Structure formats: C-alpha cells, structure tokens
Amino acid sequence: MSAPDLIPLSPLLYMPLVHSALAEDLGRAGDITSDSIIPETAMTRVTLRSRQEGRLAGMDIAEAVFHTLDARLKVEKFRRDGQALMPGDVIAVIEGPARAALSAERTALNFVGHLSGVATATARMVAAVQGHKARICCTRKTIPGMRALQKYAVRAGGGANHRFGLDDAVLIKDNHIGVAGGVRTAIARARQHAGHMVKIEVEVDTLAQLEEALLEKPDIIMLDNMSNDMLREAVRITAGRAILEASGNVNLDTVAAIAATGVDLISVGALTHSSACLDLGLDFDWAA
Length: 288
Fold this sequence. Notes:
The strands form three sheets. A six-stranded parallel β-sheet has the order 6-11-10-9-8-7. A four-stranded antiparallel β-sheet has the order 3-5-1-12, with helices on one face. Strands 2-4 form a two-stranded antiparallel sheet. The protein is α/β, with parallel strands linked by helices. It folds into two domains: about 10-125 and about 275-285, Quinolinate phosphoribosyl transferase, N-terminal domain (Aldehyde Oxidoreductase, domain 3, Alpha-Beta Complex); about 130-275, Alpha-Beta Barrel (TIM Barrel). It has helices at about 10-25, 30-35, 60-70, 100-130, 145-155, 175-180, 185-195, 205-215, 230-240, 255-260, 270-275, and strands at about 45-50, 55, 75, 85, 90-95, 135, 170, 200-205, 220-225, 245, 265, 280-285. The chain contains eleven helices and twelve strands.
C-alpha cells in the first residue's frame, strides 16, 4: 500500500544532488571500466528488484540519475514510492545504452537504497504504534545536504516531519533555557520575536519544568528522556493544553510502550541518521 498523501519531491530539491553524485563517481575520466569493455552502440535491459521486505522511496531520484547520464535510457516503473516491497518484487526495468546504464547503476542504487531504508524503518515504527494516537516523526539529525530527501522518505514510510531547519519553527532546548535564565523567560522572549505563523516548542526534562512551561502556553512541549511513568503523568498534567512530544532513546523495542502513555508525537532521530539501506539489486536481462 502507498503512504497517504505522499506528494512527490520537486526536482529542484534533488537534481543538484544527482549531478554532484554522478560527478563524484565519474571523476575526471568517466567510467573507464564500462567505456573500455562495452561497445558504444551496445544496448541492454536491466531489472531493479527488491531483495528484502521493506518500503520504497526515491524512485524519481533513481530515474533522474539514469536520464541524466543518457536521455535515451527508458525507465519503466512498476512500484511507487510509499509502496510495500517483498523479496523478488520488480521495481523498475531500465532499457537503453549499456554504457550509461552500467555507469548510473551504483549512484541510482545509493539513492533509492538509502531512502528506502529510511522509509522501511519508519514504516516499522508506525506499525508498532498502531492503535495509539501517537505519530512517528523525524528530526534534524540528517545527512548534510540530504535533509529534504530523507524527510520525504520518512513520509513515504507513513511518518511525519518535524521542522526542516532553524528557520521554520522555534524549538527551545536545554541550552537555550540555560542561557536565557529559565523556561518561562525563554518562551516569553521567543513569543515576542516569532511571527504569528510560527509555532513555539520547548524541551523539558522534569515535570516541574513542564508545569512551568505550561504557564506560558507553548504550542508543543518536548518531553526529553522521560520514563514512561513520567510521560503518563505529563499527559495527565497537561490535559490537552499543549501537544506533547516524547523524545530520547526510542527504538522498536520501546516505542509501543511510549505511545501507550498517551503522548501525541514520538520523535526518532535514528530514522534518518542510522537506518540501514534496503537491499535492492540491478539484475542483467539482456544485451545487444
């Protein structure tokens, strides 16, 4: 099944990365292996298949890699981003000039394998909290330059996005509070500065800080590294006056119990900084 409301990425966000990745791989002399072995006129067809169960993300980017190297390469896609994959599923068939297909292979697989890994990890987290209201969301712990792509992959896995950068929401963390001199002071100063469209979130470590923060009516409160008992008490104290986000040491073994406390969001940095690539392979069909 597809993830709901998955809006495709704009090429403006990934084409610079495609060009940079291909330039990195082709270097100064191009693909000297393919160019020396494969006749310039040779044509081929290869099939992209899943070797693992997972969730697909990044096919538009992979397609762009093939088309950038040679516009004559035809990419026929059989699976869409957000769809579940099983071992052996045919994702796409690529047909055209053999040199270009072989030269593009690794870069295309790097993108789609990594992003599908992020989507797969997210889908597993989302499945683990089914039956609870909590939504799984990502963080800013992303590979530099890859944030928009990784956050798209989280959406492909059925998760939600936290802020994209420092400029689209206020998130007051412990160091901000320390420098500002207190929770209430930090929130009040942020509200004076932020525009009326900007959400304000504050991180708290204790229930006493939570009660202090609630006096300033922030939009969201991040409950950092709290025990499940503390999370349940935080939900009781807050009583719907702010959105509550649990964060810290979240994994597949702990996420269901965290969701059962009644929090609204669970943020997981590991989705983007530690997800393993999904094993996808490009298999040779024929050449002429």
